[in-house]
Design goal:
Elements: E1 2-3, E2 5-13, H1 18-31, E3 35-42, E4 51-59, E5 70-75, H2 78-81, E6 88-97, E7 119-123, H3 125-133, H4 139-150, H5 155-165, H6 171-191, E8 197-198, E9 208-211, H7 212-222, E10 227-230, H8 237-246, E11 253-256, H9 260-272, E12 277-281, H10 283-299, E13 303-309, H11 326-331, E14 340-342, H12 347-364, E15 367-373, H13 374-378, E16 380-383, H14 401-405, H15 447-463, E17 472-475, E18 481-484, H16 489-502, E19 507-511, E20 514-516, H17 520-528, E21 532-537, H18 543-552, E22 557-560, H19 569-584
Parallel strand pairs: 1-8, 2-5, 5-6, 6-7, 10-11, 10-12, 12-13, 13-15, 14-15, 18-19, 18-21, 21-22
Antiparallel strand pairs: 2-4, 3-4, 3-16, 9-16, 14-20, 17-19
Helix pairs in contact: 1-5, 3-4, 3-6, 4-6, 7-8, 7-12, 9-10, 16-19
Length: about 575
């Protein structure tokens, strides 16, 4: 059978090298120009406990999501892999460890659960790993060798990647891992006839791999990030780790604080002192930051808070994905507390979007909450990022010499934005607190002053719309079925639209990195052109749908997916087909 797209899943327990398997396969594919997307799922427990899996989808054409189903399951741990058989496509395959035959009860044997519509292939994974390394380590490389032969992939693409991954560990480690790979390859070559082939176009340029977390950090540094304060939390910790490594190279700082409250407080202090600063967290941390976000609103100090969403509430599901933090991002503050909320849909938008976030936060002196999620933040994918490096950019509204003579920090202006200075400007003295205040910054509790200052703070959001990107409208502009989505679900929506189109149903999608504020006319015109509107999202309440209903008066078909896995394109396509059938009745 010939393939132009394959999805493979490695499944085992922590310590089996599952995540590194995905990285090696992804790197090998990217190096020869194949599009790749990798999604790792692991437990929140310590090493040696809990199930771990890495799903790798690679294709000759661009990928937008993890798709539906898998072509091959590699069962590194039989018991943990059994449930994943349900995800195998008809005529798909399983590679199971035949070394353990007779060692486990039948109900825990992967081979015993293989159904007639899928193919099983025994591979003595543990035995061959011991032959290569003297231990059970290297099982993942044995399986990778088998995969290489199974799909007629060039062995050199894997061996080069193995050498690169293990280069820091020395030639000895490279040698035994390469041996493990070759033993798996030769075993499959000897025992199973070659009947699969992945079609590779020769001469393709190598592709770049990155994750959303990496793209966010690079984008921030490239546009002037100089100070990062944070507290470790899954799945945002990688952002702090990269910042800690890279910022000192450009005379920047990374501080690990005692908690998330201190982290966002330090970020406000850095912005107040004239430095571009950022923090990153997940849902529980964002909850703790609410009070200091309010401080950012009232004191009109910029702030960038990246929130890599995970399942909630409370500690919830630390290693699973969900889009449940939209409401707290939009409304999580005391009083009338406006803030910018953004949500990138892919790694390219993580890079360009965080730069826009910095420019908006600084120019309009407002907090920006940048909503990524676990799937987008941690997935590895091939990308084409257009670098924009300007590490000295500044969008701050500076006072004129005349304004400095009688400096009014909160001067009333048409656009709601007052001149902002760095402390130490000669002659410019003002107060700053979390209390309501007059134009000088001195506390003031009068009704007319509060009304004036509240209107000023909200007026910024009317002014900033001109600086925001227009919404994108994708698909068939004549379609009567429209879809509105946000964040990482956009990829699944796009692939769901393709599935529906093959069934003869046209659709169109409106997407914007901006959640608040938005170019509202674009949305109103889009919704007015649709007879049916679908809003899919990864939460139980339909938080984005509720926002759109209140803002635009629409009555959409809502798809609520309180997820632990990325959204299924097929599920989106099925809802599109249902909407099409309703229109035909």
């Amino acid at each position: 059978m010939k393939y132009t797209e394959i999805t493979i899943r490695f499944c085992g327990i922590a310590g089996d090298g599952i995540v590194s398997s995905g990285k090696i396969l992804a790197g090998a594919c990217a190096n020869i120009g194949i599009h790749v997307m990798v999604n790792d799922i692991y437990s929140a427990e310590i090493r040696g406990l809990g199930k771990s899996s890495s799903t790798i989808r690679f294709s000759t054409s661009k990928l937008y999501s993890m798709g539906d189903g898998i072509d091959l399951l590699v069962g590194m741990a039989a018991k943990e892999s059994i449930v994943d058989i349900r995800d195998i496509k008809p005529e798909g395959s399983v590679i199971y460890d035949s070394s353990t035959h007779g060692d486990v009860a039948e109900e825990e044997s992967l081979a015993a659960h293989i159904t007639p519509e899928i193919h099983g292939y025994g591979l003595p994974i543990k035995k061959l790993a011991n032959e290569a390394t003297g231990t059970s380590r290297g099982k993942n490389l044995v399986a990778m060798g088998a995969i290489c032969y199974f799909y007629s992939l060039p062995p050199d693409m894997f061996i080069d990647q193995i050498k690169g991954v293990f280069a820091h560990k020395g030639e000895g480690i490279i040698e035994i891992n390469t041996k493990a790979f070759r033993l798996g390859y030769e075993y499959f070559k000897e025992h199973y006839p070659l009947n699969n082939q992945f079609e590779i176009n020769k001469g393709l340029e190598p592709k770049t791999l990155t994750s959303g977390n990496e793209a966010i950090t690079k984008g921030a540094i490239d546009c002037g990030l100089r100070f990062f304060a944070g507290y470790p939390i899954t799945p945002a910790t990688k952002i702090m780790e990269i910042a800690a490594k890279e910022l000192p190279k450009i005379d920047g700082w990374t501080l690990q604080m005692e908690d998330e409250i201190a982290a966002v407080g330090a970020v406000l202090g850095a912005w107040f002192a004239g430095r571009r600063a950022m923090t990153a967290t997940a849902g529980p941390g964002l909850s703790l930051m609410s009070e200091m976000i309010n401080m950012s609103v009232m004191a009109e100090i910029p702030a960038i808070i990246v929130n890599v969403q995970r399942g909630g509430p409370a500690t919830g599901l630390p290693t699973k994905v969900e889009q449940g933090d939209l409401n707290i991002a939009l409304y999580g503050g005391a009083g009338d507390s406006p803030r910018v909320v953004m949500a990138p849909s892919n790694s390219e938008e993580c890079y360009s979007g965080i730069q826009l976030a910095f420019d908006i936060a600084e120019k309009y002196q407002t907090p920006v909450i940048f909503l990524s999620d676990l799937f987008l933040g941690q997935r590895i994918e091939t990308v084409n990022i257009q670098e924009n490096i300007d590490r000295h950019r500044c969008t701050r509204k500076k006072p004129t010499s005349e304004q400095l003579e009688n400096f009014l920090r909160y001067q009333i202006t048409d656009d709601g934005v007052s001149p902002l200075i760095v402390p130490g400007e000669p002659g410019a003295v003002y107060s700053i607190t979390g209390l309501e205040h007059s134009v000088t910054g001195n506390p003031n509790y009068e009704s007319d002053v509060h009304s004036m200052m509240t209107a000023k703070r909200f007026r910024k959001f009317e002014s900033m719309v001109a600086d925001l990107p227009q919404a994108d409208i994708l698909g068939d502009e004549t379609a009567e079925i429209g879809i509105a989505g946000w964040g990482s679900t956009i990829g699944a929506i796009l692939e769901g639209m393709k599935i529906a189109k093959k069934q003869g149903v046209k659709t169109k999608l409106i997407k914007s990195i901006m959640i608040h504020p938005q170019h509202e006319d674009s949305f109103r015109n889009f919704f007015a052109s649709c007879k049916k509107i679908i809003v899919p999202e990864m939460n139980y309440q339909g938080q984005y749908a509720a926002l759109l209903k209140s803002r635009y008066g629409i009555k959409p078909i809502e798809i609520h997916i309180p997820s632990v896995d990325p959204v299924s394109p097929l599920k989106i396509a099925q809802k599109i087909m249902e909407a099409s059938n309703e229109l035909s009745e």
